[in-house]
């Protein structure tokens, strides 16, 4: 193993009826006035929000609802949430939902603890973040892994920029996970989540770092587990075993354990963020739409690494590394197709894009070629453009 520092302090409450322990967790972590952050209202329709609010009320914990989070969470909504939290005197932020609600809650927590400081200045690290409010999570979708990561992403819709922030202040205090809460999700959200889980591991796995066998074994096992249970969930998303495995894989895929000791790449994520910012593409779909073009563009940097992936994850028997690498890419793309996920830009709602749109996204991804994207193969503006061009078909 190579050197690393590992820190994953989030308490996980996992299993059936786990949501009924939410109030006790809030109280345990010092919450007495809670801002409840959630999305479009599905948590209301399902009765989950009523359950949580009942638990909070019975525990004597005051709360205020802040619903309306959208996919690719907006900076402006988080900023308004800061105002609501400050006005309410919130001392704890509770996200009920998936990655978008969690990332919004993290943003609100940072802004509330630092009133008078522009949230975007915090997010772009123009102003150092030195304090935040505690955040808890009731997870309803296996996807982003934000419930155990140090990361969060917000979209500044005013300037069309999707920006991530990594800081230990993004670590939530607890994550309540009941796989049964995922049963009523639209299938598209389930499959986008499957892609996102895989990509959080793949974007760590493709590295030139050597000597991390245990990390590799964990990543490969997680990918095999997601692939197998993703197929089961596609057929029946009320399969508790399948949905529980996906939910736990979601957390492990983004809490750092699948990339310990290695450089992180995250090129598909960075390219996908430009699609999401410009066209409001669902995060998982943005990743599957560019992954094949990225993989085919970079795999010759180290065919043996892609061959290892093909053999360990997909069971490819080919002895030649280049041919094995190609087959691993084909099987990955085939798996995405089997879940009805887009595998090129033309399959997204925006369709095949104009040339100037590709150039604009390549410029944004690289700051007009002022910095490189990724580590496995450093990608300059021209490289990002070429990947997008290769993906730009039906």
UniProtKB/TrEMBL annotation:
Is Oxidoreductase included in the keywords of this UniProt record?
yes
Task: List the GO cellular component terms.
Answer: cytosol
- Any idea where the Fe-containing alcohol dehydrogenase-like C-terminal domain is? 194-391
Q: Which UniProt keywords apply?
A: Oxidoreductase
Q: So where does this one cross the membrane?
A: none
Residues making up the signal peptide according to the UniProt record: none
- List the molecular function annotations (GO) for this entry: alcohol dehydrogenase (NADP+) activity; butanol dehydrogenase (NAD+) activity; metal ion binding; methylglyoxal reductase (NADPH) (acetol producing) activity
Q: Does the keyword Oxidoreductase apply?
A: yes
Q: Where is the Alcohol dehydrogenase iron-type/glycerol dehydrogenase GldA domain?
A: 9-179
The cross-references to PANTHER family, in alphabetical order and at most eight, read:
ALCOHOL DEHYDROGENASE YQHD
* Name listed for the protein in its UniProt record: NADH-dependent alcohol dehydrogenase
Its organism's taxonomic lineage begins at: Bacteria, Bacillati, Bacillota, Clostridia, Lachnospirales
